[in-house]
Design brief:
The protein is mostly helical. Helix content is 77%, strand content 0%. The chain is globular. The N and C termini lie far apart (92 Å). The chain crosses the membrane at residues 12-31, 43-64, 84-106, 118-137, 149-171, 187-205, 217-237, 258-281, 322-342, 354-376, 388-408, 436-457, 469-492, 504-530, 550-575. Its main location: membrane.
Length: 616
Amino acid sequence: MGHPLLRVVHDLAAALTVGMFLLGGLLMPEGKNTQRRAYAGRLATASATVWGLAGLLGGVMAYSDLSGTAIGSSGFFSAYWTNTWQLELLRAPAITSSAALVIALLSSIERGRNAMAWLFFASVVAILPLALVGHAAGSADHDSAVNSLAFHLVGATIWVGGLLALLLLWSRLGKGAAATAARYSKIALWCFVLVALSGLLNAAVRLGGFGELTSDYGILVLAKTAALVVLGGFGYLQRERVIRVLERSPDEKAPRGAFARFAALEVLVMGATVGIATALARTPPPGGEEISASDPVLDRTGYPTPPDFTVTRLLTMWRTEWLFTTVAVIAIGVYLAWMLRLRRRGDSWPIHRTICWVAGWLLFVYVIDSGIGIYGRVMFSIHMIEHMIISMGVPLLLVLGAPVTLALRALPKRKDATLGPRELILATVHSRATRFFGNPVVAAVLFFFSLVVFYYSPLFGLALQTHTGHVLMIVHFLLTGYLFVWSLIGVDPGPPKLPAPLRLLVLLVTLASHAFFGVALMTGTTLLVPEFFNALQLPWVPDPLDDQQAAGAVAWGTGELPTVILAVLVTADWLRSDNKEARRQERQAERDDDADLKAYNEYLAGRAGRGGPPKE
């Protein structure tokens, strides 16, 4: 009984921490004579401390259950420490708990607006390791279960935590209550959708069919679904009947009291939902979760061996990777919503930029979900095709979409000194970190040397065999590629760009270095990650070293087309800059009647009168 209760305390403390940082850093206005943010910071520090300590104590109790040894027995804590960092079931919660205690320490030191905003994002990231444990980790569709659980945890934590924080701070919000509640309501709606869809996917993966809804696990899923529907109804009533009235009459007591009552009821239902979720996490899904190790590919990647390789299957097979597919769908949807917002107010947006942005994300989804992503997990050559497209092809299209410029034109400006999406984007693009990493030389160094470090270190093996490593690999490829392309041809706001000739030089040097990497793979006689590729025993890859050398040819050859396109775009930017400067000089000459040219001619005439033409 103690462990489930401790888990509820852990989850609620984590949610309250996230919610306090959300309100203090991003949603809640601060008046000249108010101390709302400081109070929220103190509560966040306390809840983060409880979160971390509850997690560590839960880890001790979990190890006691797993090992069958009593807490405090001889050698218990030394064995617990050793096994915590060897078993993912214990390691992931320990990482989250340790992060929570670090967050509590940082929150006790600094509680300003910017610090609380950073700690909000840090707290959300700290939750993610929990998606790697529990029944999701043992699911036959491991990656889908983990991804859906990650979305579920983030959505539920922000939703529950935001409401808890709003309720605890309600009496202190004063005239800022309407704005804070309205901003939270929009976030809560996104969280509701995220929780509902991710919960549906997670239940489908674990249950395996409608017939299992009558099992103990299925009944808990239905109970949680009913609670979610009730919460959605509460949220709708809050937005339509309370928040709208509160925005029109922020000083009236009636809507303020109604909001507090609705929020209290929501918190009670949320508490029951958290309890159901805790019971669900401790209930085995029906049908068992044993994963056969007879398939060497399944044993090492979590996916069964794909059918024999053919070009047709490479292009037509499909397996949805929900994490990155969801990110792509959201990126496209938000971009189109911003574009339509501009159109409705009469502003234009270049259609070619929209086409580039949508095409970039569609290409990304195709590479991740198609046969390229499927065979890329077991064949080095196909993996390299995936790498080249994600790091060079997709960023080229996304950068041409100019998303930052569109966001800054479409998003409203906050007038109460809080950090909205527009303010966060501006702070990011003008930060010191962006100024440093956005320099083409630094971006090129990061783009190339991280490539070498990745493939010639254990990181490559982790990316092939672990879900976390695979996700981080894709994110790294996309971000470094985007940063490199943006530093060369980006039109979005950011640090000053180097002159076009220097950018062309950086591009050519990077191309040469990239080609050198490809040649090194082509001529190499030592197989990278042999314990992985040799163990797969794929009939269509008789010699993994030959496949690795083919990957080198891919790395060498596929970089040419994106490089040519980048070179053309940099050159075009060079010409536009020269033409703009020429037109500026012409306008200046018209205004001052060629004063600069006349002064230079008089200088030449004076020099000629003193003994001939000026010396060069």
